[in-house]
Write a structure and sequence with these properties.
Low-confidence stretches: none
CATH topology: Rossmann fold
Number of domains: 1
Strand content: 15-25%
CATH superfamily: NAD(P)-binding Rossmann-like Domain
CATH architecture: 3-Layer(aba) Sandwich
Order of helices and strands: EHEHEHEHEHEHHHE
Number of helices: 8
Number of strands: 7
Strand order of the largest sheet: 3-2-1-4-5-6-7
Distance between the termini: 45 Å
Bound molecules: nicotinamide-adenine-dinucleotide
Radius of gyration: 18 Å
């Protein structure tokens, strides 16, 4: 095996059943990686989970998936124990890649005619907890368990909303700004251990999460109009970027926000 091979290494993808996480799981499996996937799906969306698992296995990879709330501390500990055993059994010392791609937040406005229509503290806290702070808690627990090491790379997913306003996106905007800040902080604190931490800012992408945003049709139309490539970003655009940068020879990018959007942001 070449020292630049990722064959047989493991990735953990938080949000592996759909959108960017699902596409990245498949792209990494095609590069020879095995995938731990965390997702939150009900019966109705389980077929898409199975489709991702089938693709990973068809590429020759192992798939170990956990249907759980990624911000539940107890479940996180149990999943990490299972991952530790699986890594030991496959002779891999630690995870090569962690991707945080969770979409789970309130889309309530801050100000509304009726108090119950406006965001409440529980909504705000849940959104920030899942979409931003869980990156820190997963990383802490994985580092404590010895499951991240020299060369491991961590990816978080941000959007233009981290620095622009979109109706209904107030809590998610705050989560994105926090997520970028957490990414920088982790890059600094994990740098001495040789762990790389970066964030991808994807362009507007047609996923189930986007379709929850009020006025998403206008957001899609505006993105196609202003994007110099005249199309939306695809989950595969992000997946191929992460798969290319999984190469062990790429080892000096950390603390960055990388735009994978066909220059959409700079046209805004
Ligand atoms: N779609 C876009 O236009 C866009 C653009 C830039 C950034 N992003 C960001 O990319 C990330 C992924 O979004 P997506 O568009 O791929 O969404 P998606 O809805 O396609 O996928 C979300 C994934 O997160 C999982 N999930 C949600 N809540 C969870 C929880 N509490 N515990 C465990 N799993 C949970 C789902 O099961 C699913 O696998 C999000 O952080 C989103 O804000 C999206």
């Amino acid at each position: 095996m070449s020292e630049h091979s990722i064959q047989g290494k493991w990735a953990l993808i938080l949000g592996a059943s759909s959108g960017f996480g699902g596409a990245t799981a498949k792209a990494l499996a095609r590069k020879g990686m095995n995938i731990f996937g965390v997702h939150l799906d009900m019966k109705q969306t389980m077929p898409r989970v199975q489709a991702v698992i089938d693709d990973i296995e068809a590429a020759g990879g192992k798939a170990v998936f956990f249907n759980m709330n990624a911000s539940n501390e107890h479940k996180r500990q149990r999943a990490i124990e299972r991952m530790r055993a699986e890594l030991a059994a496959s002779g891999e010392p630690y995870l090569w890649l962690l991707m945080h791609s969770l979409a789970f937040g309130t889309l309530k406005p801050f100000i509304a005619a009726q108090p119950e229509e406006a965001i409440a503290p529980a909504d705000m806290n849940m959104t920030l907890d899942v979409m931003a702070h869980s990156l820190v808690y997963w990383t802490q627990d994985l580092v404590r368990a010895g499951l991240l090491g020299r060369g491991s790379r961590i990816w978080s997913m941000t959007s233009e909303g981290s620095h622009r306003v979109v109706p209904g996106y107030g809590a998610v905007s705050a989560a994105k700004a926090s997520l970028e800040s957490h990414t920088r902080q982790l890059a600094m604190e994990l740098g001495p251990q040789g762990i790389l931490v970066n964030c991808i800012q994807a362009g507007v992408t047609d996923t189930p999460a986007l379709r929850q945003i009020p006025g998403h049709e206008d957001i899609i139309a505006a993105s196609i109009r202003r994007n110099p490539g005249k199309r939306m970003t695809l989950p595969e655009d992000v997946a191929h970027t992460i798969a290319a940068l999984a190469d062990p020879a790429v080892g000096w990018i950390s603390g960055s926000v990388i735009f994978v959007d066909g220059a959409e942001d700079v046209t805004g």
